Amino acid sequence: MNDIVYVGRHSLMHNVSRHAHESWEFVYCTYGTGTFVFDGSSISYKCGDVVIIPPMVPHSNASEGGFRNIHVNMTSPRLTLKKPALISDDSNHFLLDAFSAVCFHFYSDRKQRIALLSIYGDLICCYLAAYQTVQQRSAVVERIENDIIANYADCDYELDTYLRSLPFSYDYLRKLFQKELGVTPHKYLTDKRLQIAAEALVNAENSGSTIADIALMCGFRDPLYFSKLFKKEYGVAPSFYPKARQQADNQQSRNAGSVRIAVEDA
To answer: For site-directed labelling of 160, which of 119, 189, 211, 263 has its Cα 20 to 30 A away?
Structure first.
């Protein structure tokens, strides 16, 4: 599954004549714009887009200004697509990183080359499957989200100040963010801080961190305020969360085991 059989990189090109592959093809545009033409349809793309082409689908690729790309051929990818599709990379360019790594390792002579290609093949398919289900976000919402992620640990981070520095109405940004992500920017920031804190609490025994330490590293200067928010979100105080989480995980494991036994006995 997700086996990479070929990787190529196009320098500046203007046309690729009509052809088809026995395997799936994933084409990441690294420069320019262009259009893939299929029988009865076409897909226009830009830099940062990935065009996904199923096996034995004839296609050509043309661009007036020229394009560059990395193209990966893969057998049996874990995707539900049945026809050509376009998926855009996000502002962090995680897909570009994966495609670039695949291109490097495909032609390297490292001993772990096959294992690395298998891992990156899985990673690319996971990214594509995830991005396929995510509604495209506006550029300004991505900017706000990235700024929150970059600064959530800073106790002095002023989200309001950042929002008011953008060339849009404060109320418009707040409503747009909530429309696209389901929560306001401030709720997103609080949720992110509490999520990171919850994971840190589970690992606190190994790290030696106190609740006050964890609160501070997640952007909460006041540990009492942090504890109040945490209990409201997770239903238990931070000091009891690791035990409650372990009990929940154990119960989930027992339930999963019961399901497996029932299936095997059926």
So the answer is: 211
Report pLDDT digits (tens) over 239-255.
998 888 888 767 665 55
Tell me if 13 sits within 8 A of 66, measured CB to CB.
yes
Q: Please give the average per-residue pLDDT across 188-204, as a whole number.
A: 89
CB 81 within 8 A of CB 71: no
> Where do the structural domains in the chain lie, given as residue ranges?
3-133, 139-245
For 53-107, give the secondary structure using H, E and C. Answer: ECCCCCEEEEEEEEEEEEEEEEECCCCCCCCCEEEECCCCCHHHHHHHHHHHHHC
The CATH code for residues 3-133 is 2.60.120.280
Q: At what angle do helices 139-151 and 170-181 cross, to 10 degrees?
A: 90
The answer to whether 24 and 85 have CB atoms below 8 angstroms apart is no
* Residue spans of alpha helices (H) in the chain: 94-106, 113-133, 139-151, 159-165, 170-181, 185-202, 204-207, 211-217, 223-234, 241-265
Of the candidate CATH numbers 1.10.10.60, 1.10.10.10, 2.60.120.200, 1.10.260.40, the domain formed by 139-245 belongs to 1.10.10.60
